[in-house]
Amino acid sequence: MLRMSPGSKKGESRAAASPGGILPLDTIFEGDCIAALARLPAQSVDLVFADPPYNLQLGGDLQRPDNSMVDAVDDDWDKFASLRHYDDFTNAWLAAVKRVMKPDATLWVIGSYHNIFRVGASLQDLGFWILNDIVWRKSNPMPNFRGKRFTNAHETLIWASRDQGSRYTFNYEALKAGNEDVQMRSDWLIPLCTGAERLKGDDGRKAHPTQKPETLLARILLAASRPGDVVLDPFFGSGTTGAVAKKLGRHFVGIERDPDYIAYARERIALAEPVDDAAMLAPAEKRSEPRIPFATVIERQLLQPGAILTDTNGRHEARVRVDGSIMLGDIVGSIHKIGALAQGLPACNGWTFWHYREDGKLRLIDEFRTVLRKELAAAG
Amino acid sequence: MLRMSPGSKKGESRAAASPGGILPLDTIFEGDCIAALARLPAQSVDLVFADPPYNLQLGGDLQRPDNSMVDAVDDDWDKFASLRHYDDFTNAWLAAVKRVMKPDATLWVIGSYHNIFRVGASLQDLGFWILNDIVWRKSNPMPNFRGKRFTNAHETLIWASRDQGSRYTFNYEALKAGNEDVQMRSDWLIPLCTGAERLKGDDGRKAHPTQKPETLLARILLAASRPGDVVLDPFFGSGTTGAVAKKLGRHFVGIERDPDYIAYARERIALAEPVDDAAMLAPAEKRSEPRIPFATVIERQLLQPGAILTDTNGRHEARVRVDGSIMLGDIVGSIHKIGALAQGLPACNGWTFWHYREDGKLRLIDEFRTVLRKELAAAG
DNA sequence: GGCACGATTGAATCCATTG
DNA sequence: ACAATGGATTCAATCGTGC
């Protein structure tokens, strides 16, 4: 039986239409993840964050797709059986998630060396297309007490699109602006979830064993979703995904089978304060300028047919034709094509290559484009 | 047909007895890796380093922003018909390697997200026991030219013992002593192999497309082998493993298919001198302060979205956005770009320009950077 | 010689729009 | 559906050249 739980104490529950039906938003579903996913409408979510269990050989709590338990194991035969069961489980939830994803949605999965190779191989087998693997470097990892291995100071995330060639959301400019104006790398330094952020029970002990830091989820949501998007977390746990989604103006859908965790999550999400100023929320984007045909420069008589274009050094000379093409020797083509040809390069932006001479000075033809764009903007 | 080639020009060839026969040392075998492995004695090597093809599956050409071409890895040895074929290949060489390993030997494999999940799953299936996954963070990776993904700034290594419960070599104290007396972590910052270390052909072009830095191999050998141990590299390439083994007083056994690579490797190894001080092979330490993204200040909630930043005089007011960009009027950008814009300067250090108000006093946002640097310093 | 500046390069699954 | 084409997009480090 599937129960629906509003994400906030107010009990407000929004919903979004999708090809497969109606998806309740900002809601936590209580129950088995695969069964619950099967009841969600197809192609209804924009982003998935999954923090699946990875108790491979730890025994006791590994769940088969049919919800039966795998016994604790320590001999080889059982170890292989356990790996296979884990793979079955992984394949099942990944396939179920894939069905629920919009065509351009992306998936994030976090794991450690115990399980991430199983997960990665499974998702490749299912046709997901890996975009990056991301390393969460922990600034304050637990040391290796016995001195028998390297300090396990990181976890791995896989970022994948539903299919090869999909047009996924990636807020490149926003990430770059917040990162000292250099593009964001695949290794992220983020502290563990500790202190006040770490949820504690009445007994003062941690409420959830693997609560993820909000910083981590914030970066994921800011990188790969837009305000108003729907973020699905099929292993909702203590609700970090929901809390961050609410703060950042995204919708969430959570699935969790433990009612205690759901209680913690609900309380926590109710307390989360959304950023209310939309201007603070919309991702920084380089606004795409309208495309200006070079022919317009001629039509508007900013350049005359027959005018000479050269590169910076004057090594190449081309002549402007009435139709906006240019001629180098007896070869005719666009400013881009001829620019590429002149340099022997596979491509070229002609606007930023060709110059014209005015009052004895060389000026870039891109100045014309700037002028025309300003005019266009003024005209609305 | 299998040919045997001495590793040095002197042609000296040592050998070690093992349960399965005699293993020639400091030798490069020319031929297919799986066939060659089948002829080596069982249980004869102490350490394996493997740098298998990554199965990159590149699409078309990639151009840099200056329209020059990226020199892609398009070699035949990296072409596989399908994931299934790649898995078959992986299973075959891993099984062959396992047979040759002594019971307490360990295996290192390096890869990227294209192949590492296949490799990890395969070696788990074969009964290897993963000890760590290690992240090689590149200090100077190739950027993402189109701004479509995160900079792919790392590769992954898996360190595994032959069997669960084996008594492998791990030089814990030595690593700790060489790491400012803190445990060596699972994330290693090491530059790409460039400059004088990078082997070049007579034409001045790189001799091998994926030559690994000696620093990386040095750390592996120092961590997981002892002087006199035998290190096997089944994808020997340009011989980095052999050169480092010789420098560090380990023996090597290499397998390589391409006679050109073998020629480079042999010459290189002949020139390698055993070192007295292993620290010579440590990476040059970085002394510069780590770069702190302004987005971290928001992620860590040191400032809230919507907070007001001003200059000293309060002439300019900008507002902080969730993604770590700031907004002046309706213009969005980094603290640096907007700081420059506000002053009409070509550049500006936003950290030392913008202030926030706390308890009625103006404080420089650079104070946040100081705090974060202290907190994150330990992790580099 | 030393410094400034430009050219080059590294395992890469790297476009969007129009016709 | 595919094909053609306009034109947007990069970080750290090394090495060579010129003053």
Beta fraction of chain A: 15-25%
SSE run of chain A: EEEEHEHEHEEHEHEHEHHEEEEHEEH
Radius of gyration of chain A: 27 Å
What global shape of chain A is seen? Answer: elongated
Give the oligomeric state of the chains in this entry, treating copies of one chain as homo and distinct chains as hetero: homodimer
Count of DSSP-assigned helices of chain A: 10
- Euclidean distance between termini CA atoms of chain A: 55 Å
Q: Kindly report the spatial arrangement of strands forming the biggest sheet of chain A.
A: 1-4-11-10-5-6-8-7-9
Q: What portion of residues of chain A is helical?
A: 25-40%
* Biggest sheet features of chain A: 9 strands, mixed
Poorly predicted ranges of chain A: 1-12, 58-62, 64-74
In total, the number of strands of chain A is: 17
* Mean pLDDT over the residues of chain A: 90
Structural class category of chain A: alpha/beta
Largest interface: A-B, 80 and 77 residues
Domain RAMA (chains A, B): 282-376
Family (chains A, B): Belongs to the N(4)/N(6)-methyltransferase family.
GO molecular function (chains A, B): methyltransferase activity
Keywords (chains A, B): DNA replication, DNA-binding, Methyltransferase, S-adenosyl-L-methionine, Transferase
